Amino acid sequence: MNKTALLELLAAVERGDLTPAAASDRLASLPFEDIGHSRIDHHRALRTGLPEVIYAAGKSPAQTAEIFTRMASAGHDVLATRADEPTALAVLASVPEATYHPQARAITLRQSMHPEPRGHVAVVCAGTSDLPVAEEAAVTAELFNTRVTRLYDVGVAGIHRLLAVREQLASADAVIVCAGMEGALPSVVGGLVGVPVIAVPTSVGYGASFNGAAALLGMLNSCSPNVTVVNIDNGFGAAYTATLIGRVAHGG
Amino acid sequence: MNKTALLELLAAVERGDLTPAAASDRLASLPFEDIGHSRIDHHRALRTGLPEVIYAAGKSPAQTAEIFTRMASAGHDVLATRADEPTALAVLASVPEATYHPQARAITLRQSMHPEPRGHVAVVCAGTSDLPVAEEAAVTAELFNTRVTRLYDVGVAGIHRLLAVREQLASADAVIVCAGMEGALPSVVGGLVGVPVIAVPTSVGYGASFNGAAALLGMLNSCSPNVTVVNIDNGFGAAYTATLIGRVAHGG
Amino acid sequence: MNKTALLELLAAVERGDLTPAAASDRLASLPFEDIGHSRIDHHRALRTGLPEVIYAAGKSPAQTAEIFTRMASAGHDVLATRADEPTALAVLASVPEATYHPQARAITLRQSMHPEPRGHVAVVCAGTSDLPVAEEAAVTAELFNTRVTRLYDVGVAGIHRLLAVREQLASADAVIVCAGMEGALPSVVGGLVGVPVIAVPTSVGYGASFNGAAALLGMLNSCSPNVTVVNIDNGFGAAYTATLIGRVAHGG
Amino acid sequence: MNKTALLELLAAVERGDLTPAAASDRLASLPFEDIGHSRIDHHRALRTGLPEVIYAAGKSPAQTAEIFTRMASAGHDVLATRADEPTALAVLASVPEATYHPQARAITLRQSMHPEPRGHVAVVCAGTSDLPVAEEAAVTAELFNTRVTRLYDVGVAGIHRLLAVREQLASADAVIVCAGMEGALPSVVGGLVGVPVIAVPTSVGYGASFNGAAALLGMLNSCSPNVTVVNIDNGFGAAYTATLIGRVAHGG
Amino acid sequence: MNKTALLELLAAVERGDLTPAAASDRLASLPFEDIGHSRIDHHRALRTGLPEVIYAAGKSPAQTAEIFTRMASAGHDVLATRADEPTALAVLASVPEATYHPQARAITLRQSMHPEPRGHVAVVCAGTSDLPVAEEAAVTAELFNTRVTRLYDVGVAGIHRLLAVREQLASADAVIVCAGMEGALPSVVGGLVGVPVIAVPTSVGYGASFNGAAALLGMLNSCSPNVTVVNIDNGFGAAYTATLIGRVAHGG
Amino acid sequence: MNKTALLELLAAVERGDLTPAAASDRLASLPFEDIGHSRIDHHRALRTGLPEVIYAAGKSPAQTAEIFTRMASAGHDVLATRADEPTALAVLASVPEATYHPQARAITLRQSMHPEPRGHVAVVCAGTSDLPVAEEAAVTAELFNTRVTRLYDVGVAGIHRLLAVREQLASADAVIVCAGMEGALPSVVGGLVGVPVIAVPTSVGYGASFNGAAALLGMLNSCSPNVTVVNIDNGFGAAYTATLIGRVAHGG
Amino acid sequence: MNKTALLELLAAVERGDLTPAAASDRLASLPFEDIGHSRIDHHRALRTGLPEVIYAAGKSPAQTAEIFTRMASAGHDVLATRADEPTALAVLASVPEATYHPQARAITLRQSMHPEPRGHVAVVCAGTSDLPVAEEAAVTAELFNTRVTRLYDVGVAGIHRLLAVREQLASADAVIVCAGMEGALPSVVGGLVGVPVIAVPTSVGYGASFNGAAALLGMLNSCSPNVTVVNIDNGFGAAYTATLIGRVAHGG
Amino acid sequence: MNKTALLELLAAVERGDLTPAAASDRLASLPFEDIGHSRIDHHRALRTGLPEVIYAAGKSPAQTAEIFTRMASAGHDVLATRADEPTALAVLASVPEATYHPQARAITLRQSMHPEPRGHVAVVCAGTSDLPVAEEAAVTAELFNTRVTRLYDVGVAGIHRLLAVREQLASADAVIVCAGMEGALPSVVGGLVGVPVIAVPTSVGYGASFNGAAALLGMLNSCSPNVTVVNIDNGFGAAYTATLIGRVAHGG
To answer: Which residue of D has its CA nearest to F59?
Structure first.
């Protein structure tokens, strides 16, 4: 509820079109929908510019399918992340026009019309094992109508592979870098480009990688000042912010 | 060295203006300057768009002053962060036109001409104790020619203080949020705005705050997807990325 | 054994109704019952006001069923927490009048007469994934004869959802807040109400949530001074304390 | 701003006594006071029942003194915690009627009239070294008009010392237990009483106490279900919640 | 090889009964047996007084059975710990006179003649869930010819249960205390007895118990000075040391 | 209060020599002395066999001196550990016959008559830097009337130094091993002797020693089953348990 | 691309044999092969002296088989580590001449001609449970044409087993030591030999071994200065470095 | 004592030149010197090839000076690391021909004749703040008669600085890489060279660097297989191993 709407409501009270009691109720209630176990936030799109997203990992296939269907019915573009096979089957049974991306473990539904992408994001990953996280980022950004350049398997132990794609990196509005193990790649990429780098530590590794904690710490301590960090394996969050940057770069 | 420069160099070889050996040397040497204990990276400005910055905490006052002076002589805008009083005195003795910001613990020197700011960043902090970090961010962004709106002491335990500045938040290209203790503020701010939020955990707190680790973990686990995170107390890094976003929003 | 009972016992010795040896034995033995692998503490109800509860996670279905049956035979209200399906089957086979709450993973048996609830507790949770913990709290409080108001899916990233239930929060004697990820909700709730807030970190999250440790740390560092914390996923413990507060508020 | 106030405001609009624009401004602004580096929250007393408290550790003596003076001028009871000697001197210079409690490291100012205490809290500590934390709790509760029974140096290695004060424990509305090292005391106390126990881990110990983390973990894992926990050394927070419980027990 | 044996060997050289080369070989080779993947240490019994024990967790059933059989053939008493069902089947197939203790997850073989136990150990545990660890300790001590008094389910939240067995505790040469969760029991027991207490943290608990780390830290920080600690769930190690103490108490 | 004393007391009631009320008071009060900030436990000597000890680190010199003096007046042997220079001066001013051991940071007072030592303990340390901890152990054991053999600077990187003192190790009733860094020494010593080994991790080291945590973890994971562990730098606790073992070995 | 090749390329430009544009392309492209999900680094052999190795744990059997086959086709020796049974089947189906080593969980293919081994490495392990890691090291070194001496089950709790193989240790160019639990073995070995010791912590252990972290910390804090450390269970990495040392020792 | 010496000793017994008792003594005593608080290991040079080194951090200036003087008198080359100014003064007062290296915090004494260096080590560091650690490594290697090439301030955020020194890296027998913050440099260097890389994490950084733990974890998880790691700030240990590699490369 923005200031304009508030002034209109108050003017209606002034005109006598609305009683104070009714206005009080309206001021208290905001546009979300209660379906018992979840309160779907339909006006998030208005508030933050992008639709709410379903994190499927903590939900049953039936719960995810129900929320997905509700959101689809509201006409939104919908994204479910961390969706395993059974969840995908449950969603597709209800919303057959949705798409499952198995490597990214994501389900997408595009309902809006997007004449052409706004913003350009490069998604970089260090090794083959980082692909699921990188793909989660790429699929998310594409659903949000952002152009994606994928640059995979360019880890720092063979630095020439990264230098070979330097020009492609330089053309993006923002760069997402997914890496596990020592998490060194974002620092090197950060030194090569003049745009924000969003680092995604992945849980790839063993032993002292502590399920991605080593990569996370490495990225937080990056000596490249244009690096910010999201949670381990959070390809979705990185794409969300990268999309916002890309939009700003192309007219907000 | 971009592609154009490379083609010119190779054309000079083709024309016989340059011997292969001389070209080989040129290709190997890139423009940094070796002053013994540091290699100053003068062409970082070309490569990433903003000057290199001196992290003074690990250096003696004399080392910082020497690097600062070198960079100043090269005509750059210069920033030294984590500079204590003795370091400030050493720098100002050599470069009297520099400015010391004691709360931000930063020394700045502006030499470039900036007709008007490009980009607008809001710097938010949770409590009075977070001010040093917030000011480091604000001073950094201002030196980088970004407009800054300061919104301080709006922690989540009195949520009305934050809601009262909601419109000011909404007008920024990016929001920097500094908070210690539980680090909850970025999530709430993230839900209120549609632009990137850069979260800076601060070392404010005691006991189980573990010098900022609790706030850091909280921010990494934010349920607002437009939140990315930098290192504890790293106001500078947050401002660096926020500046890049602001530039992209105003013509790159 | 309180002071009155002790004086009566000693008076019996004085009167010669009881030999010193018999009195010594009585003083040494306290009312618990030894069934080999467990010592059931029947007089805990006298001592602390609420019956002992079975934590089923570390026990076999048969062990849980045996203890449950013993307690039921003693006429107590009985609660078993962290009870999976097989445990529920084993208990219900012995005590058919017990009830299994699958989402809360709890088995309850009410045998006492309770004319009307004493105390009122609000149970709040941040997201759909926190429901099992919130329901464990709610079911526990209800068995202990406390009125429960459930306010679910009101996480801080959409702060308007929480503000919309502000009046419901304000009417409770104590508020239980369950949240995973960054664990920010208790701080915001704590700032809205004037009663104790019991924060329950949940293991909901991934990566740097470290199975609820991030939420736990966040809650321990809450800037709202009316927040106390229990162990990760410990909905039962939160309800136990909230019940005690509610009883105090309604005549002890 | 409660519902009554809102209805009055809206009625004023209906009557034409207030323009919609003025009402809109009033709705947006809530009663806090901006003094540059801090936003003092005067209506917290209305909202949560107890005055805001100054955490002096992260502030300069001058900042603390300024905030303290402002709050004193507003007629509130005022409490500053973690106040060292220089801070106390600065505050007392401005507000001579304030009192400094050196062991508790607290500064208090009582301005309200309290005919007699409401609520009774027992403050227990394990050893002599825990006294500063226990005293912070006791001084806080007393300023908040709660009766305090101090039971110090009753650690579990000499369990008879604790059993000797059992009756005193049993008469309180809530018990605060401060303990460092292994933090075992709250569990034992919790088994002895039928009221909420608020456990305060202290940083007392060495080596594997990890500055109180061992005690904190012990308390979070308490096998007594009436134990909730606050941050390490947070005597103030424990007293705040204990006071709220005591008030509820004596008419809210 | 003790000094006597060395002198004998050297005397044989002096007498010419042994060549220097043969003596050199004898000095280099010590009595262990190489079976490829393991070097069985037959003379450990001579060196440390008790036979080597097989830790079965890291070995295949076949490997455990092979080592067990070898040791049995050498006439030793044999103990295998952390032995699951398949391992027990494999061992019993080869050594039918061995005994499997399922709760203790141990396989024992007694071949020595022990006229009567030497030493007396009390094994205490806090709750029913700690039984496997307590039983591992009890079975181990019994195989090593030590008398064992089991005192189970006497956790600190019902301190009267522990006080009721105080005399039984006082009669032992050493006390083993197994506890999970907050690990408080050894401190209380340590204050009640005048003999060494060996604390065994168990992995019983959830959330912030971190698989026994909370109990471990609590025990290491015990305020009772007669408490020493072994690894999480290490009932065997506790029994080993307790047995050594018991032997010392009864003639070494 | 043991059973005999209880029977006597009850018999006095039976005879009419004691009223029930007086008996009740006697039963409730146990022999400790309340001096305000501490409750001195005079009957600990009766209960556990050794006097209570003052941990001076968390106390002011004046507090330590007061407790020390009280204990001295009661005729006990007294030990204060972690006592710095100012504490020693304060104690010696009140109790001039006490002795300060600067390397061990301990103050001792022997008042009892001990015809000859009971028990023999070897104190081993890995390097010169471990001496303060080893000396705390040695001084403690000696005050407790135990014979001590010091074997210092025999770390595992020069294993021959340890093998050279093997016979001395073998003659002790218990061995205390102090080591920092990797904490490997107790495992090697444990394999050489047939008596209990009490491992004391020291905070000696840097970087990944994490102030002794690495040594602590190493010792807890010892592959020698006769090793138990105390807290980092806790030489006193090791000596306390070693003394108890030595007493058991020499007639209790 | 080394300097010689660069000079040749530039000379070709000078001669007119190559256009600047073509040379620019050649300079940018380095010899790796893009197969979609991986960029195989064929010239790593040239750059670092040993072929790239496939870490199979994070890859599907099909992915591993595809990469293995590609590398085999290029004529390289190939090694896949952490390969389970299904992966081995997939690889052997494509490359039947490869060998699966089940204990080492490795697949090897030797295609090069090696007249005789260069370098000699001793692989030592503490216990039977460390065998998989030790074998991964041994198989790797052998594929890289290094002579391997296996010395297994020589843990520090029976130090004579290690001393018995001292001469075998002394003859190697480098020693790899694999140990779990307390990780003490490398320190002892390091004191016995005058060559580099590469310590491999293994995840063998339980409880406070924290999956190998205790052994890792112990090794990093080794008091033997010739010890360096690799990641937990990283037998491959240890063998890689040991091989490089062995080659240096035998003519580079 | 090697096999030859043993055979000689036994032959002397055979010849009757040595009694068995005297031989037994000789076999038990190994050549170290006991000076009370330290056992100096003079024959380490024989056993491991390099002299023992004094770690001064845990010792008083007087202790360090005494050990240093003893070693100097024995004719050894001597190195004391982590020596502060007062320690240096104490050592130089006794051994004036020693040299203090303030940046490296090392004291060296060369007494041996070294005609020319054996082995060549490159010492690389990421930033100016890493210099003390890098210098400790360089000074150590030089004292051990190894040629050192220093390549400082070549961090990964400006990758061209590192590529510019690639040829210098390639000529070394081993490379030591010191880096704090994210610790990414060893991985990149490891990919550029075909020799062992010894990574030294430094405590340079702040916040989530956790005093070097982040860099340490990064290096342990390096994706370059020729990287091994030493403790945080352990420049000495890295140089020790690098020296051993260099010696092997130049004739052992």
So the answer is: D129
Quick one: DSSP state of residue B218?
A: H
- Give residue A208's Cα distance to chain centre: 29
Would you say the C-alpha torsion D234, D236, D237, D239 has a positive or negative sign? Answer: positive
Q: H helices of chain G, where?
A: 3-15, 20-28, 44-48, 61-73, 85-94, 131-143, 159-163, 166-170, 185-192, 213-220, 235-249
Burial-class residue H57 by CB neighbours within 10 Å (0-12, 13-18, 19+). middle
Q: What is the CA radius of gyration of chain E?
A: 21
User: From chain G, which residues contact F within 8 Å (Cβ)?
Assistant: 126-127, 155-159, 163, 180-184, 187-188, 190-192, 205, 207-210, 213-215, 217-224
Residue D249 has pLDDT above 80, yes or no: no
Q: What is the pLDDT of residue C169?
A: 92
Asked if A217 and A187 touch (Cβ cutoff 8 Å), the reply is no
Is pLDDT above 50 for A32?
no
B6 phi-psi bin (left φ>0, alpha ψ -120 to 50, beta other): alpha
Closest CA to G246 of G107, G147, G137: G147
Phi, psi of D161 (to 5 degrees): -65, -40
Cβ contact G41–A209 (<8 Å) = no
Instruction: Quote the pLDDT of residue C202.
Output: 96
Chain F residue with CA closest to D205: the answer is F58
- Chain-centre distance of CA A250, in angstroms? 18
By the 10 Å C-beta count (0-12 exposed, 13-18 middle, 19+ buried), D35 is classed as: middle
Residues A231/C207, Cβ–Cβ less than 8 Å: yes
ipTM: 0.81
Q: What does the pLDDT average to over H173-193?
A: 94
Chains in contact with F via at least 3 Cβ–Cβ pairs below 8 Å? C, D, E, G, H
**Alpha-helical runs (H) found in E122-179:** 131-143, 159-163, 166-170
Please state, in angstroms and rounded to a whole number, the distance separating the CA atoms of residues C207 and C214. Answer: 10
User: How high is the pLDDT of residue A33?
Assistant: 46
Distances (CA, A) of E179 to A123, D122, E154, E185, E223: 50, 28, 10, 7, 16
Q: How confident is the model at residue A42 (pLDDT cuts 50, 70, 90)?
A: very low
Q: Å from D80 to nearest chain C CA?
A: 13
Encode pLDDT of B32-81 as tens digits. Answer: 444 445 555 444 444 455 667 888 987 889 989 999 998 898 888 899 99
Average pLDDT score over chain D: 85
- The mean pLDDT of E79-87, rounded to a whole number, is 95
Helix (H) or strand (E) holding C148: strand C147-151
Cross-chain residue pair D32–B160, CB shorter than 8 Å: yes
Q: What is the pLDDT of residue D30?
A: 38
% chain H with pLDDT above 90: 54
At residue H214's C-alpha, the angle toward residues H212 and H220, to 5°, is 100
**Cβ contact (<8 Å) for E241 and F173?**
no
* Average pLDDT rounded to a whole number, residues B190-208: 94
pLDDT band for position D18 (cuts 50, 70, 90): confident
Between strands D99-101 and D174-179, the pairing is unpaired
C-alpha G8: how far from chain center:
34
Look up tokens 């090392």; give the residue.
Answer: H106
- Residue C61 CA to residue C58 CA, distance in Å, equals 10
Q: pLDDT grade, residue G24 (50/70/90)?
A: low
Residue C8 exposed, middle or buried by CB count within 10 Å (0-12, 13-18, 19+): exposed
Residues B102-150 pLDDT 10s: 999 999 999 887 668 889 999 999 988 899 999 999 999 999 999 999 9
Q: CB–CB of E13/H20 below 8 Å?
A: yes
DSSP assignments along D201-217, one per residue = E-S---GGGGGGHHHHH
